[in-house]
Design a protein that fits this description.
The chain has a single domain, classed as Rossmann fold (3-Layer(aba) Sandwich). It has five helices and eight strands. Helix 1 crosses helix 2.
């Protein structure tokens, strides 16, 4: 545990509340509408999504790798969702059996994991065939000029907010074997211009073996 991670955890909730009020909260609410069954959320931070899980959720498991975040998450879960299970685990090494969950949730997490392809393979592994991955994520801009600025600023961005703003996350989700069912390209509110390009969507763990024919995505803008 470093001084930086402790400070980041201390400031995180305040920063997220500000962004949620500016529009991210509405994105979260839309993303999690109708979520049910056995739900896994990775990188839960301090629990911003907790109030959005409804009665259709049979079980809720939250993972968080950073100890300062985990402590704040555990306190919030104790107050607001005592039946939820909280574990310290990185997204790249999930301590669950194959096909354990119906839905996996990732909100601004895949931009910060150390090994994004491995994290996505783990998510696919623990989701049952036909299970959903629901996500809100930073992405590399489709505008070449903005993408170049993302590349220039990414080192500073990672130092300050612990994430890469220029990852091709949508392509990585497909490469991991998911079928992208729905994706909307949006801008993250209250973020610097180079860190605004984001996606909100759903991807499906395939019912067929890797390499078999899969459906096409529905894209909205």
């Amino acid at each position: 545990m470093t001084l930086h991670t402790r400070f980041f955890a201390m400031m995180y909730s305040m920063q997220v509340r500000r962004i949620d009020k500016a529009g991210l909260g509405a994105m979260r609410e839309e993303l999690l509408t109708g979520v049910g069954g056995r739900v896994l959320e990775i990188g839960s931070g301090t629990g911003s999504n907790l109030p959005l899980y409804g009665d259709a959720v049979d079980s809720l498991t939250l993972t968080e790798p950073e100890v300062p975040m985990l402590r704040r998450l555990q306190r919030r879960v104790s107050d607001e969702a005592p039946h939820a299970k909280v574990l310290r685990a990185p997204a790249e090494d999930l301590p669950f059996e194959d096909d354990s969950f119906d839905v996996a949730v990732s909100t601004l997490v895949l931009c910060g994991v150390n090994d994004q392809p491995r994290a996505l393979r783990e998510l696919r592994r623990v989701l049952r065939p036909g299970g959903e991955l629901r996500f809100i994520e930073h992405v590399r801009s489709e505008d070449p000029e903005i993408a170049r600025k993302q590349d220039r600023m990414n080192g500073i961005n990672r130092m300050v907010v612990c994430c890469d703003c220029n990852r091709p996350t949508l392509a990585s989700i497909a490469t991991a074997g998911f079928v992208v069912d729905r994706v909307e390209h949006v801008e993250l509110p209250k973020a610097p211009a180079f860190a605004r390009p984001s996606i909100v969507g759903t991807a499906i763990a395939p019912l067929v073996a890797s390499g078999s024919p899969a459906g096409a995505a529905t894209v909205t803008t």
